[in-house]
Amino acid sequence: MMDTNDLKADLEKIYGDISEWLKFAEAKHAGALVLWTALLVAAFSADKFYSLCDLKQVCLVAALLVGMLINLFAMIPFTNCIYWIKKLCFNKYKKYTGNLIFYQSVFVSVGSPEKSLDEKVSKYKEMLREEYGSLPQGKLITDYMKQIIEVATVTSIKTFLFSISAWYLVVLIILSFLYIVL
What we know:
6 helices; mainly alpha; 76% helix
């Protein structure tokens, strides 16, 4: 049988853990934004770069700005409201299911982006019923679940966008190296 106080304490811990992952994802985006800004400043600090008369210079600035835009986009509040981003993220992380704690698993396990928050809460309650033996009840418990689901969604999206930014940076470094060598 379920002890409501134990469930509430567990949900508080889960929420705290997922919130820390969100802070970490946001810190990664802030760090990447600093990196893109530093690269842009370094590019403009080079001799004769201000004129942007060379196609290579224009392409470099454009590439750096695209990297910045990816991270700026991730910093926009309510990125969890953009359906196509949620769908892409859901498809990438759909292998992570069944874990009641891990943010990407919570995001995927409660259902596809088409489902409403209430449907996702019902699914999360069902997952907790399997763990605790009875269906969780109460407004506070439901509110914790809503917060866990929403923060897990935002964190998953921010992590997804950071992976795009990181891959983009790797590709730019490889292309830059090839350009220098060839």
